C-alpha cells in the first residue's frame, strides 16, 4: 500500500488549503481513511476521518472549518481546510489501514 499526501503550503490566517491523500495498492472504497497532524513538540493528533460509506468525524478544534471527503474512483481523500489559524500549523499525515504517508507541511502565518 502506498499513501501520498500533497497540497500543503504557507497560507495567511483566515486562508484555505486543500490537502489530497492518494492511495494505491489496495482495495480502497470500503475502508476508513484518516488525517492526522503533528505540530512541533506535540503528539500526533487525529484531525478527521471518513468511512467507506462517507461518514465523517472531526476533532473539536476543526469542526465547522475543515471538511473531509473522498473520491473512490480516484482512490483519493481530500481535506478542505478553511479559516485557517496559526495553531493549525503542523505536518499533516494521511493514514490508510496501517500505512502512513510521508506528510505534508501546513504553515499558517502572516
- Give the averaged pLDDT, no decimals: 97
- SSE class: mainly beta
What's the gyration radius in Å? 13 Å
Question: Could you tell me the strand content as a percent range?
Answer: over 45%
Terminal CA distance: 37 Å
Shape: globular
Unreliable segments (pLDDT under 50, ≥5 consecutive)?
none
**Total strands:** 11
What is the helix tally? Answer: 0
What is the ordering of alpha helices and beta strands? Answer: EEEEEEEEEEE
Q: What can be said about the biggest beta sheet?
A: 7 strands, mixed
Range of helix content: under 10%
What would you say this structure looks like, in words?
Helix content is 0%, strand content 52%. The chain has no helices and eleven strands. The protein has strands at residues 2-6, 9-11, 17-24, 33-38, 45-50, 56-58, 66-71, 76-81, 90-96, 99-100, 104-108. Strand 5 (45-50) and strand 6 form a beta hairpin. The chain is globular.
Topology:
Blueprint: E1 2-6, E2 9-11, E3 17-24, E4 33-38, E5 45-50, E6 56-58, E7 66-71, E8 76-81, E9 90-96, E10 99-100, E11 104-108
Parallel strand pairs: 2-11
Antiparallel strand pairs: 1-3, 3-8, 4-5, 4-9, 5-6, 7-8, 9-10, 9-11
